[in-house]
Known about the structure:
single chain; mainly beta; 6-stranded mixed β-sheet; globular
Amino acid sequence: QLQPVESGGQMVQPGESLTLSCSASTGILDKYAVGWFRQAPGKEREGVACVSISGAITKYADHVQGRFTTSKDKAKNMVYLQIHSLQPDDAAIYYCIEMYEGCATWRTRGSWGQGTQVTVSS
């Protein structure tokens, strides 16, 4: 399993950028695509980005397309999520998790980590 550990969340001002990190167990990134999800207070968890096993294919939710970029560094066993032009609606706990069918769907497998908190406030 991915056994994800997310980090990088912090309080930022609207319009700023932030990079979140997800550390993975050795070798896992060669087996599974990795998705990024977020959950805001009172809302359901939603998928926002996904990177394929090879790293060559990425997918984004429509409402974050153009502002979110995900990538992976297999040598470092890391997956990243860059968020640009942060908006108040981006405030949430962000999670990474292995995906069940690559990036074809938002179906996940494995266990959720603790996530990392992103707060957007002026």
